[in-house]
Amino acid sequence: MSAGLVALFDVLLVGLMDVTAVLLIRLGRFAAELGRPDGDGGGIRSAGEPDSVLPEPEDTSPAAGTVIHVRQQSGEPPAPTKRGPFVLASAESSPPTAYTRAESAPAPLQRAAYPESRLRLLSATLSEVTQLAEDSADLCSLPTLSLHTAATTGLLAGIYCFIQLVHIFFSTAAQVSESVMFLLFLASFAVRLVAIGAAGSRLSGQQQRLRARLSAVRWSPPAPPAVHSELHLLLEQTRQELVFHGWGLFSTQKETIVSLLGFVLTYVVILVQMNVS
């Protein structure tokens, strides 16, 4: 019963960390879309990409000197007028009215749409993901501390007992199955620690990738100060580390597991040197 509860907690803890990491992956892809000049981000590009100029819309207005006849309603006197770039003219003997283009139309302005609203949406979503990670870490902090304490104690005591069983095995050859089962029991502790540490490192790595993608976003032409301010606030949000911890004493990452296993290995070396019997 207790082993099933322990395994259930391990799955829950790894699942919470992986779900948070998947959410960060989705946010990273959303941030990457902001750096595409041909996407919804308008005139936005990522650092290292060449400046992209959006294609100008095709000019369908008539060329200078082109005469276009417009059918005139009956009863209206033909009177030449000038409106904008076109000159309205009429013939004296014919009802159709003609206008000619007096000058070429001005070149269309380059579109530059800055997704300030999408940056706000990304910031709000990141805040929700951060709150989810913090609540999950606080909920699992004490059980995580108990897990690491039990695993470390089990490894230390188990290695000592295993060395005793090895000596008995070499002397009587009667404890082979017990030695193998105990070795598998010790390996289960190490596997649990490695799985939890790997999940924590995946979460930290996805947060760093999200920060890198946001830092690489550049605008061409330069964005207004309001957009830069939104991006700066978003980058500040990503500086808050999303880690699961053991009651605030350590973080569940690969570095912590490597240090713990190194301590256990040092203990094994000391036992071997003392020639425990």
Automatic annotation (TrEMBL):
Signal peptide: none annotated. It is found in: Cell membrane. The chain crosses the membrane at residues 6-27, 155-174, 180-203, 257-276. GO terms for molecular function: signaling receptor activity. One of its GO terms (cellular component) is plasma membrane. Keywords: Cell membrane, Membrane, Receptor, Transmembrane, Transmembrane helix. The keyword Transmembrane helix applies. It holds the Pfam family 7tm_7. GO terms for biological process: detection of stimulus; sensory perception of taste. It is a multi-pass membrane protein. Residues 36-62 are annotated as: Disordered. This is Gustatory receptor. It comes from Amphibalanus amphitrite (Striped barnacle).
